[in-house]
Amino acid sequence: xxxxxxxxxxxxxxxxxxxxxxxxxxxxxxxxxxxxxxxxxxxxxxxxxxxxxxxxxxxxxxxxxxxxxxxxxxxxxxxxxxxxxxxxxxxxxxxxxxxxxxxxxxxxxxxxxxxxxxxxxxxxxxxxxxxxxxxxxxxxxxxxxxxxxxxxxxxxxxxxxxxxxxxxxxxxxxxxxxxxxxxxxxxxxxxxxxxxxxxxxxxxxxxxxxxxxxxxxxxxxxxxxxxxxxxxxxxxxxxxxxxxxxxxxxxxxxxxxxxxxxxxxxxxxxxxxxxxxxxxxxxxxxxxxxxxxxxxxxxxxxxxxxxxxxxxxxxxxxxxxxxxxxxxxxxxxxxxxxxxxxxxxxxxxxxxxxxxxxxxxxxxxxxxxxxxxxxxxxxxxxxxxxxxxxxxxxxxxxxxxxxxxxxxxxxxxxxxxxxxxxxxxxxxxxxxxxxxxxxxxxxxxxxxxxxxxxxxxxxxxxxxxxxxxxxxxxxxxxxxxxxxxxxxxxxxxxxxxxxxxxxxxxxxxxxxxxxxxxxxxxxxxxxxxxxxxxxxxxxxxxxxxxxxxxxxxxxxxxxxxxxxxxxxxxxxxxxxxxxxxxxxxxxxxxxxxxxxx
Length: 597
Ligand SMILES: [Zn+2]
Hints:
Layout: H1 27-48, H2 57-87, H3 92-121, H4 124-131, H5 140-146, H6 156-183, E1 186-189, E2 194-197, H7 199-203, H8 211-225, H9 229-250, H10 257-263, H11 267-279, H12 281-294, E3 300-301, H13 317-331, H14 333-344, E4 348-349, E5 361-363, E6 372-374, H15 381-403, H16 413-416, H17 418-434, H18 438-474, H19 481-496, E7 500-501, H20 514-518, H21 524-543, H22 546-556, H23 563-567, H24 581-596
Parallel strand pairs: 3-7, 4-6
Antiparallel strand pairs: 1-2, 5-6
Helix pairs in contact: 1-2, 1-3, 2-3, 6-9, 9-18, 12-24, 13-14, 13-15, 13-17, 14-15, 15-17, 17-21, 18-19, 18-21, 18-24, 21-24
The protein binds zinc ion (ZN).
């Protein structure tokens, strides 16, 4: 084992910046790489356009290797540009580079698009025979999965008409929605005089210890939304109407069909999951009653839902690193070393500073290049969880890239958040065993319970709301603000029961959730991934160390199989009616720990 000098950091991860130079050494080199990628995309088009109808399996394998190499090159150039920009959004050189790369990517995409379309146009038996050929084993799932929308494609002129009218029929409404919700500002006094507050800024107060501030910020939000709700409802009504009309043309029976196809999940699995989640709303209500007691409140109001309990102690970056590495190491030396490489190779940018973007992410970069993590570390216990979360994505990308091609490296949306959530659970368990400060323990436990609720229960409420809105629209009902508000309150009431009072203004709670507008039924994937992770964690408790090897295999499998097939070897059978039981047993256990804390 090599000894590594720990970088010295002060408060707020001072000096912890990433080094992008191993990736690409300069903006000029990124542009040069883009040019090569573009050149090869054009050459690929010249060589292969019109050939898929007669291509042989070995030729297709050669073509896929070329596609993967182009993908890696463009992905590396684009990641480099966007990572540079993420740490200094104000630098015009960074913005120019990003814009140039984005333009190049569109051009490259146009050059190689024929390939997917020709693949989709092949008759089913011919495509199947090709995909099952031994030469194409590595990308077999990619090739099969690429065709899953094929049965719902219309004729070429029809598809072109739909695509041509998309900007006016769909995107324009989404833009209008985005403009209204992102520019909405309310004058609000959070303690230092009235200031214009955006929706996000108002919502940030819901975790404030000051109850009055929490109440006032939510009331200000609803008051600010009210004048816009008719327009926002009109936007939604139009988009839903358009989606239902195109579904009908394409032959989809259920408005959730396309989402299930994209997620590669069986509709029956999703609907059973949603029913199981709803059958456990009582668990959430039990916690809300307990929380009211802990906060010495007779009745919880909506603005108390995320009121903090306990308070986490400060944690400096080096300790956070140590906590996460140790937590991972207890599970598997392999993931510990994958995580350590992120620190040692300077692939984490944790220091908050002017011009750097907020939030956190892990960028996969490319199949032949290592991943990078960005976060804004402020010495909070929460930051430890964020670090674990992003490194969870990181270990997935790194292990998958070792074995998969550039085309099969990424797992779909349904499982993308599993490794990150699993990494959080490993870290949480380690902290629970080692943390001695009682207030920090309390904060950790309650945040874990409420985080699970927000993901599993809330997202299911949202998906159920959407389902009912689509059903109403399909029955010929116009989705007015009043009607959406009724559907919204019904879906929420089922969850909160009488444990949380919903203020009048919450009727407009549907109006600012962007997923409804951008991607229908997106929200259930959050619930699915979280419950799946809890089920995997329960398997880990049961199987012990033997589970770690299977889990590493799962990470290395990337997107080479559908979710159901990736999960089966780990002991999670999506077709079993009991599949979510261990997940809810985990959640119940956490609520018990929280009640006792
Ligand atoms: Zn994530």
